[in-house]
Amino acid sequence: MPRLVVLKVLFVAFSLLSGTAFADQLVPETREEIRLSFAPVVERTGPAVVNVYSERVVENRVSRFFEDLLSRQFGNGRGFGGMPRERVQNSLGSGVIVSPEGIIVTNYHVIKGGTDIVVVLADRRSFGAEIVLEDEKTDLAILKIDSGGEDLPWLELGNSDNLQVGDLVLAIGNPFGVGQTVTSGIVSALARTQVGIADYQFFIQTDAAINPGNSGGALIDVSGRVVGINTAIYSRSGGSHGIGFAIPSNMVRLVVNSAEEGERVIRPWVGARFQEVTPDIAEAQGLSRPHGSLVVTLHPQSPLAVAGIEQGDIIMSVNGHEVATPGEVTYRMATLGIGGTATLELLRGEDEYSTEVELVPAPEDPPRDVSLLEGRHPFSGAVVANLSPALSEELGISGELTGVIVVEVRRGRARRHGLRPGDIVLRVEGEEIETVSDLKSAVRRERRNWDVTIRRGERVYNSNVRG
Predict the structure, then answer these.
(1) Per-residue confidence (pLDDT) for residue 50, from 0 to 100
(2) Which pLDDT band holds residue 98 (cuts at 50, 70, 90)?
(3) Catalytic one among 215, 249, 258, 392?
(4) I want to staple 53 with a disulfide (CB 3.0 to 4.6 A). Which of 118, 204, 323, 373 is the partner?
């Protein structure tokens, strides 16, 4: 039998066996179906996505030897040909108007250090903008423009928890400064926590093309609501490779609400450190698969500890949302805001239980007692403070640590001995240091040599240094 006839027979047989599958695939039959388009959504949302131009003054890093040589050659202290030591650097990004009063969301890295910020709308109107709030932890910033009574387009923040992998989304922004551009794609993944962009790791991943300049722009669902703020791409060339990340709108809403209330962003304090549940841990706990987040350490005042949670417990969900990584726990807690409680489902050994955790800010306990130390000792010239949960939040360090932390090194022996901001003083001459008062007492006596123990990051150092 000729090969062509065989192929035809096989095709007919396969069609008969799977007729329902072929029947489910529809071809557009009407002119209206052929012309289906995202244009109505873009027409409604595009005007609220703006360009953000930021200027900042940066210092030229010129070699001192090079500068001195040119100064001698040309007699000009500013360098060759009067070369200025400072220059103006421009940055371009995108933003989204989220209220009729002119509140705009963008990325913190777009306006970081900006001294002159201009917002340009899609209709080419431009306004000077003031920075209302900067939140480096989430890489978000809130701007405000005064339209002088003119109407402004704006978009509603949607509920990012309603997103599912496979949902259609649009990314709107100003890539490479070419003008407003719209790209389409799907939600590729949710709860990406290993991106390394911000402290609160929880991102929507999309394959909608995102490029430099899209930062701060809108990720829109097909209903025209903002479900994310585009913030970064994964790329080895600088262009889009189909892996873009957006900050979920539920985190954005927390920052916007804080700005509108005229407050800094205050998030619920967790006061604990977590570890992802590995296959070995899952096997030891009798879990069918690795999931949940293991409680590794707890601050004594942590609201989790107050609620009865113990080291070794595994958090399975927060308010009904399953958590698989430490980043998901902190994200879920953060987006709930201050006040009320969160319901946590946990596993302790083979027992499952739930508990209510109060959503409270990090306490300022003990009071920070910021002090500049002076005298003939290794800490002279260092500014130190009592490490409270509130100060830990501000400094972006682990919330369960206690003791005395170096917040600044100005001069003197502290700088010569290599002390750094973030170092935690544990012991001096064998004495435990728990407060700034303890440290002041310990260095009151003059010595030729000092035994000092400090924590730097995850490591502890013991040193004997000269006074």
Answers:
(1) 94
(2) very high
(3) 215
(4) 118
Q: pLDDT, tens digit, for every residue of 379-432?
A: 999 999 999 999 988 887 776 678 899 999 998 889 988 999 999 999 999 899
Name residues whose C-beta falls within 8 Å of residue 4's C-beta, 6 or more positions apart in sequence: none
Q: Which of 91, 135, 139, 392 is catalytic?
A: 139
CATH number of 371-466: 2.30.42.10
423 as an active site residue: the answer is: no
pLDDT for 20: 44
Q: For domain 160-260, give its CATH number from 2.60.40.420, 2.40.10.10, 2.30.110.10, 1.10.3720.10.
A: 2.40.10.10
CATH says 272-358 is which class? mainly beta
Mean pLDDT, the chain, integer: 82
For residues 217 and 169, the answer to whether their CB atoms sit within 8 Å is: no
Q: Is 139 a catalytic residue?
A: yes
Return the HEC string of the chain. Answer: CCHHHHHHHHHHHHHHHCHHHHHCCCCCCCHHHHCCCCHHHHHHHHHHEEEEEEEEEEECCCCHHHHHHHHHHHCCCCCHHHCCCEEEEEEEEEEEECCCCCEEEEEHHHHCCCCEEEEECCCCCEEEEEEEEEECCCCEEEEEECCCCCCCCCCCECCHHHCCCCCEEEEEECHHHCCCEEEEEEEEEEEECCCCCCCCCCEEEECCCCCCCCCCCEEEECCCCEEEEEEEECCCCCCCCCCEEEEEHHHHHHHHHHHHCCCCCCCCCCCEEEEECCHHHHHHHCCCCCCCEEEEEECCCCHHHHCCCCCCCEEEEECCEECCCHHHHHHHHHCCCCCCEEEEEEEECCEEEEEEEECCCCCCCCCCCCEECCCCCCCCCEEEEECCHHHHHHHCCCCCCCCEEEEEECCHHHHHCCCCCCCEEEEECCEECCCHHHHHHHCCCCCCEEEEEEEECCEEEEEEEEC
- Say if residues 113 and 56 touch (Cβ distance below 8 Å): yes
Tell me, which fold does domain 44-145 have in CATH?
Answer: Thrombin, subunit H (2.40.10)
| Cα 363 versus chain centre, distance | 22
From the candidates 109, 299, 377, 417, give the one annotated as an active-site residue.
109
Residue 215 a catalytic site member: yes
Residue 267 contacts residue 254 (beta carbons within 8 Å): yes
What residue ranges do the domains of the chain occupy? 44-145, 160-260, 272-358, 371-466
Integer Rg of the chain from CA: 28
